[in-house]
Structures are given as C-alpha cells and as structure tokens.
Amino acid sequence: MIHRFYSVAVVVSDANKAAEWYKEKLGFEVVEKMGHWITVAPKGSGTVLHLCQGPPLEPGNTGILFLCEDVVKTVEELKKKGVKITKEPKDEGFGIYAMFSDPDGNVFWLMQE
Questions:
Q1: Domain 63-113 is classified in which CATH homologous superfamily?
Q2: How far apart are the first and last CA of the chain?
Q3: SS3 of residue 12 by DSSP
Q4: Is the pTM of this model over 0.85?
Q5: Distance CA 45, CA 78 (A)
Q6: How big, in percent rounded to 5, are the helix, strand and coil portions of the chain?
Q7: How far is CA 29 from CA 13, 66, 76, 77, 86, in A?
Q8: Which CATH class is domain 12-56?
Q9: If DSSP codes are grouped into helix, strand and coil, which group holds residue 89?
Q10: What number of other Cβ atoms are within 10 A of residue 28's Cβ?
Q11: How does residue 39 score in pLDDT terms, banded at 50, 70 and 90?
Q12: Cα–Cα distance between 55 and 99 in angstroms, integer?
C-alpha cells in the first residue's frame, strides 16, 4: 500500500532556471538532476518539488506522486477497492509507475520505491 508522499510537480518553462530561482530566492537545494527530472526542496525535507518543464499538465493530472514498495501489488489492491486505474503499471526506464484517479477525476502517480 502507499506509505509515503514524495513529490509534487510544478510546471515551469525552464527547469534549470527555475531550480536556480528556488535555490537563490528560497534557499532550497537541488535534490536530483537527471535529464528532465529536476527536484528541489528545503534542506532535510522528505518531499520535493519536481520542476516539470513543458506545457501545462493535461486535465486531471495533479502531478502528485506517491511511493509504494510494489506497484503491481498496490494497483491490484486498489482495483479490489474500486479505485479507477488510469495507467496500468509500466516501466519507462526511470522506474515502474502507474496512475489512478479519485471520484472527481484527479489523477495521481504511483511509483515503486
């Protein structure tokens, strides 16, 4: 099952410039920087902002990512509870993830830790 809240995506026009702004203006640190995956957070925070470069998120996508130990198992548990899975578990090379929605159509990410 879900055991930790990890990240919130913030759509930005230039992720590198945004990372510098968060660092210089707010005192955040760059936690990870791998291609499009740039995250920042206050020092010691367990939750990060994913500076997601690109056009605005598609309707419904909250950009909120939850972590779990086993995505496939968690998806099966969620299905049994009637949760709508909007993207079945998939490995895109950066990790195994799936997506699900709440009754209002808000879509959340679920990623294997």
A1: 2,3-Dihydroxybiphenyl 1,2-Dioxygenase, domain 1 (3.10.180.10)
A2: 12
A3: strand
A4: no
A5: 28
A6: 20, 50, 35
A7: 19, 21, 36, 36, 33
A8: alpha beta
A9: strand
A10: 19
A11: very high
A12: 20
